[in-house]
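Box 3.1 A note on notation
Throughout this textbook, protein chains are presented in two layers. The first layer is the amino acid sequence; the second is a token string describing backbone geometry. Keep the layers aligned when reading.
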Amino acid sequence: MRRVIEFRTFADDVVTARNQDFKLPETYTWIRTGRGYQMASDALYALFSLGASGWLRHGLHTRFIGQERLAREAQGYFLYINHTQTTGDPFLPSQLDRKRRAYVVASPSNLSVPFFGKLLPMLGALPLPNTRQGMKEFRKAIAYRVGQNQSVAIFPEAHVWPYYTGIRPFSDASFQFAVDTGKPVYCATVTYQRGRRGRVERTVFVDGPFYPDDTLSRPAKRRKLAEQVYCQMRKNAKKNTVEVIRYVQRKEEA
């Protein structure tokens, strides 16, 4: 019997953190360049990447198709991924491109997780701000990281839906980062198949690059990038062959 999850809208949270409404302190710093902090961050990231490799390969039975596109990229870029695993998804960017560090835009609620939450910024988490000034610093941090030729991963669907096999509608707002920096955009689509001995396996398809169209206005550039990524993800989502969880939209009562 497949598990069934009911939802009202595609923006529903079907998985919530212990402190879902956690807010960043006003003094939060997105960029820390101290030598000691950087050394500790690099060491922790190396351990994290090693653990991520084992978990993705043996725990989630994941294989990648097209990841050489990222290896060939000479500059920093943005990577958009559909959101279908609570633990597996944050591990993906570091394994898709091992020649650079991956930074991941995350909900601030993740920082409220006991112990591990405090380590997330050192591992590359860029928590979303909740103030206007925070947004300015957040944007600076994103531009700084791609300017270092690193990658910034974004889950445009925002909410994790475990094992969901479609692509939920998403806002084009986060594509403004690529428009503002002029950096390329890639997408990674996570799909699920039935593997050996009946186990569920994952195939991640990497596509791109997509670039801002300089013949368009800034809002139109953003919309076009979002449409390109959404259409490519929808195309790849057709390669799902197993449904672990069935999602059913709840009818509104009259």
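The radius of gyration is 18 Å. Residues 3-16+27-249 form a domain with the Glycerol-3-phosphate (1)-acyltransferase fold (CATH 3.40.1130).
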